[in-house]
């Protein structure tokens, strides 16, 4: 799962473009790997001794994420729910690997030192204006309660001892909430940025937990034991002791500075905006440190894999357990290009009450301020990971006048504005089956499986089946039609012709269903194979 690159690679022009190719080069998700660059340089031909760069090592694919969670992929959701319900307080230690080297004063502020001495990559060469911290865990403390918050925010390097950070107010980022409190006190806000923490700690940064929850306690829940933490050297904050690098300092609460442009996770460049100035007071690190960077921008990306695997279990738990909508089976956030937040697909059992369908849609759209611009209810036979399949359901199972609602006032979140207003609206779509439908018009499973074996025997290119890949009943079917289909497959279709000839009728108009003409004939029955394995 790891590609180790020993040749010199330029962090300013080559690191992120190289890893980006596995997300946009037709490589299957399960074939993506992490990259460790052991000989990093920059466009000034500077070499970064004893500091390596890792990209894609947190979540290039779900298997890597599961490895960091110390569980299987299908156990990820339960691990998150259990950890949130059973937090474990961190354990304070006196010494830590992240403080093997401590830099302060001129070792931080002089040219060529401080942030300049860290091999931070340029994420979007050709558009970004500077190297950015993309996997940095920003730790701050609520001055009223003393509870720490930890979130992943972008950090724009400005000087050896200065950077700008964007803590998003539209989604009430914990760091932003703390900053407003320090601003009202006319005090600078202490911060620490953690680079290269243990995976169970790293995964908490993008997770959306209620304000006032200390993410390090949930990380302890994931680890099933306390996370070791150590007090920073120049600010009163606790950081993971096993981290690789920690940047300490104070955030200005009076003055803001232009930050950006930067390639953001919504898939567009974020243009310049005024954001918070973070002044560095110390940098502590391991002797042989590894800087972790995340591939973000256009999705799919490492950033979106981390969020998808973390967010979906929380949405399912919210609908099924908190709102008690037991017919909800799955919640899926659409990933490619739309970046999870805009399209939410809610899978419900066939036959769920209409009231439950609309409660599920309303609940999915309201859990997070900026998630759920378009919420679509589907049934279990529709694959939410295949947008074409979802569009198929919308096209044929949704009557817009009855099955679409538009609701005002939704936060646009961090995204380009579609209009002058900072607010958006919500579209709720019921694309579930309301009546029985005819079968999906693909060969039955046994015929497709036989053809798949034949395909392999012929040495044709490897197949990657996309659901649906075989036909299945949606209720409007009967045993008589099944028998006729079996006759056709056996080559006895002439018998079907003889039978249908007996049922010929003199009629003035075509396109009339047989059941309307022969109401006493065989009726459609609800088949037992209405579900398909996705």
Straight-line distance between termini = 25 Å
Uncertain regions: pLDDT < 50 for 5+ in a row? 524-534
Largest sheet features:
9 strands, antiparallel
Write down the overall mean pLDDT. 90
Overall 3D shape: elongated
Helix content: 25-40%
Give the strand content: 15-25%
Write the layout of secondary structure elements.
Elements: E1 2-5, E2 9-10, H1 15-24, E3 34-37, E4 40-41, E5 51-55, H2 62-69, H3 76-85, E6 91-92, E7 101-104, H4 106-109, E8 132-133, E9 137-141, E10 148-152, E11 154-159, E12 162-166, H5 174-185, E13 189-195, H6 199-202, H7 215-223, E14 228-231, E15 238-240, E16 245-259, E17 262-263, E18 269-270, E19 273-285, E20 289-293, H8 302-322, E21 328-333, E22 343-348, H9 354-366, E23 374-379, H10 387-397, H11 400-403, E24 404-411, E25 423-430, H12 445-457, H13 479-489, H14 493-502, H15 514-517
Parallel strand pairs: 1-3, 2-4, 5-20, 6-14, 22-23, 23-25
Antiparallel strand pairs: 3-5, 7-19, 8-11, 9-10, 9-13, 11-12, 12-19, 13-16, 14-15, 16-19, 17-18, 21-22, 24-25
């Amino acid at each position: 799962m790891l590609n180790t690159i020993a040749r010199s690679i330029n962090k300013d022009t080559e690191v992120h473009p190289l890893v980006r190719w596995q997300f946009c080069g037709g490589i299957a998700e399960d074939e993506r790997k992490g990259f460790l660059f052991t000989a990093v340089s920059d466009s000034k031909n500077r070499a970064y001794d004893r500091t390596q760069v890792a990209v894609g090592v947190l979540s290039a694919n779900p298997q890597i994420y599961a490895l960091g969670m110390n569980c299987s992929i299908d156990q990820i959701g339960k691990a998150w729910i259990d950890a949130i319900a059973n937090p474990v307080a961190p354990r304070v230690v006196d010494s830590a690997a992240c403080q093997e080297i401590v830099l302060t004063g001129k070792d931080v502020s002089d040219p060529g030192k401080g942030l300049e001495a860290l091999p931070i990559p340029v994420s979007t060469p050709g558009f970004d204006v500077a190297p950015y911290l993309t996997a940095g865990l920003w730790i701050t403390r609520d001055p009223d309660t003393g509870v720490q918050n930890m979130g992943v925010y972008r950090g724009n390097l400005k000087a050896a001892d200065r950077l700008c950070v964007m803590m998003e107010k539209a989604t009430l980022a914990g760091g932003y909430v703390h900053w407003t409190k320090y601003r009202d006190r006319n005090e600078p806000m202490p911060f620490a940025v953690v680079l290269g923490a243990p995976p169970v700690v790293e995964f908490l940064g993008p997770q959306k937990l209620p304000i006032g929850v200390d993410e390090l306690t949930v990380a302890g829940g994931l680890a099933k034991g306390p996370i070791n933490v150590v007090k920073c050297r120049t600010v009163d904050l606790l950081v993971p002791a096993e981290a690789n690098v920690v940047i300490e300092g104070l955030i200005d609460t009076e003055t803001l500075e232009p930050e950006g442009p930067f390639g953001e996770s919504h898939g567009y460049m974020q243009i310049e905006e005024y954001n918070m100035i973070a002044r560095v007071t110390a940098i502590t690190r391991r002797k042989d440190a590894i800087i972790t960077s995340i591939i973000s921008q256009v999705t799919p990306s490492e950033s979106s894999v981390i969020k998808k695997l973390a967010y979906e279990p929380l949405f399912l738990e919210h609908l099924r357990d908190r709102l008690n909508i037991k017919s909800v089976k799955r919640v899926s956030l659409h990933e490619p290009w739309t970046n999870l937040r805009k399209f939410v697909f809610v899978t419900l059992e066939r036959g769920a009450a209409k009231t439950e369908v609309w409660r599920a849609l309303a609940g999915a759209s309201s859990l997070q301020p900026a998630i759920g611009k378009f919420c679509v209810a589907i049934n279990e036979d529709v694959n939410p990971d295949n947008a074409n399949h979802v569009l198929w359901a919308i096209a044929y199972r949704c009557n817009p006048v009855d099955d679409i609602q538009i609701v005002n006032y939704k936060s646009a979140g961090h995204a380009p504005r579609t209009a002058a207003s900072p607010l958006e609206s919500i579209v709720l779509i019921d694309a579930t089956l309301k009546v029985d439908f005819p079968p999906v018009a693909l060969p039955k499973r046994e015929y497709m499986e036989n053809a798949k074996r034949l395909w392999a025997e012929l040495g044709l290119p490897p197949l990657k089946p996309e659901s649906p890949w075989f036909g299945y009943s949606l209720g409007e079917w009967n045993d008589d039609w099944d028998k006729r289909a079996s006759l056709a497959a056996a080559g006895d279709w002439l018998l079907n012709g003889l039978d249908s000839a007996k049922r010929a009728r003199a009629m003035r108009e075509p396109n009339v269903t047989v059941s309307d003409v022969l109401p006493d004939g065989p009726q459609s029955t609800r088949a037992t194979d209405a579900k398909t394995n996705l």
